[in-house]
Amino acid sequence: MGGRPNLLFLVADQFRAMCLEPGGDAVSTPFLDAMAARGISLGQAVSNYPVCSPHRAMMMSGQYPSTNGVTHNVNSETAPWGVGLRPDAPSWSAVLRGEGYNTGYIGKWHLEAPVPEDAIHGTGPLDDGRYWDAYSPTDRRHGFDFWYSYGCCDQHLSPHYWTGNAPRNQRMDIQGWSAAHETDVALDFIRKAAAAGRDGAPFALAVSWNPPHQPFDQLPDGYDTSYAGLPAAQLLNRPNVDLDSDTGHAAAAIAPLYYAAVSAIDAQVGRLLQVLDELDLTQDTLVVFTSDHGQQMGSHGLLYKNVPFEESMRIPFLLQWPGRLRTDSATAAAVGLACVDIAPTLLGLLGLNSRIPAQMQGSDVSGALLECTTDDAGTSGGTPSSALYFYYPRDEKDQHVRGLRTSTEKFIARFHERDGLSSTLFDLVRDPYELEPVEDERRIRGGAAALQTALADACQTWPGAHSLAALAEHQ
Fold first, then answer.
1. Confidence (pTM)
2. Where do the H-state alpha helices sit in 123-244?
3. d(C-alpha 274, C-alpha 282), whole Å
4. I need a surface site. Which of 123, 148, 244, 404 has the fewest CB within 10 A?
5. Cα–Cα dist 149/354, whole Å
6. In CATH, what class is 6-368?
């Protein structure tokens, strides 16, 4: 394919890092485990904002929410605030298209602000009146030429898609499990790319599966009983889950279904890796598997996401590219990567370091991942030592939250005009399950100062800045 590498970028919604870790969740993922064994699995990959749209916007643009425009999950309620990935935001996909790549996007997008017509032609309003699904006009697809996608539709067994140049009122409805169908489409895309021959354009294909996102009971045949009957203590083995609480009981009920969806996604990864082998494309293709955030699954009395705990923030980030990556355990453990770093890092890995748009605010960590670097590959001597955390308030009663996570500590600051500033510091080495907040005032002041500096370095403003500075300087 012209000698340039291909990219297969795989995203599973709400797939937490613990599913792929030794001693982690009690779930079987043989294909992803094999991918990690052949490549590298980053142990310090995190979401800066662990909820769908803000994460995806950073993942695509390499920009923080205040810059790319996506400060909340995209739906009809937030759309009037201007939420939706800015059409002029940079993206790794647009860069690759400009470099002659055959670009494609399959599956969930959730970066387009719904308009009233989407309430008619998309999934439609939910019980609360909001609608989430949205059609993406052809000039707002950020460099993707092949388009087989939808905005946000949680109907895993009866999905729909807008394809190619089809208008908003001509969607395609499918019967069957969404992830398997999307994998079928991806396999066809890859086979056609391979048929173009060695002189054809390299491909950059993103496949975005909605499972294991809820509804958890919408599973493909053969998976619904995979984990049924296992005891709650085995399914929910993290010590920060209270199995006797109402939330613990709810988590125990959904855990077998969530893990079944995880295993079913793993099988789709296996199908894609197999076709790369069959078509002799494995050596020439960078494969990445990740997610947009995790899920609490009962930890800290919570079920879902959009909170600064590890179960929500930490995401899988697996890379496979035979002979091109540093696959030693030290690299896997040390390389820090947040979702804002994904876009520049993908470009650096593909040898396009000099093409990284200046507007991208994330870091290119490809130099720490590649076994050998070319003149135009990422050559950074290190990786980010910390990642910012964001939460924007949904209404006037909500708090503004910012935080800073390193491999050893996590400092979270919450601010409200009425209540002022509150903060929490966790020692992630001594207390990996975040059960015992640090009470040492000196360390708390240090965490506040570090967050203050990180926000300033990233050109981020927030209403709690003055109070944060006062805490950092407090004697």
1. 0.95
2. 178-195, 232-235
3. 9
4. 244
5. 30
6. alpha beta
* CATH, domain 393-473, list 1.10.3720.10, 3.30.1120.10, 3.40.50.11060, 2.60.120.430: 3.30.1120.10
Q: What whole-number distance in Å separates Cα of residue 460 and Cα of residue 462?
A: 7
Burial of residue 466 (CB within 10 Å: 0-12, 13-18, 19+) is exposed
Strand partners, 289: 10, 318
Q: Which residue has the tokens 């975040």?
A: 434
Classify strands 409-416 and 160-163 as parallel, antiparallel or unpaired.
unpaired
Query: How far, CA to CA in Å, does 410 sit from each of 193, 201, 241, 387, 451?
Result: 44, 44, 20, 9, 10
> How many CB atoms lie under 10 A from the CB of residue 215?
14
Domains of the chain, by residue range, sit at 6-368, 393-473
Predicted local distance difference test score (pLDDT) of residue 400: 96
287-305 tens-digit pLDDT: 999 999 999 999 999 999 9
High-pLDDT (> 90) share of the chain, %:
85
Cα separation, 193 vs 304, in Å, equals 38
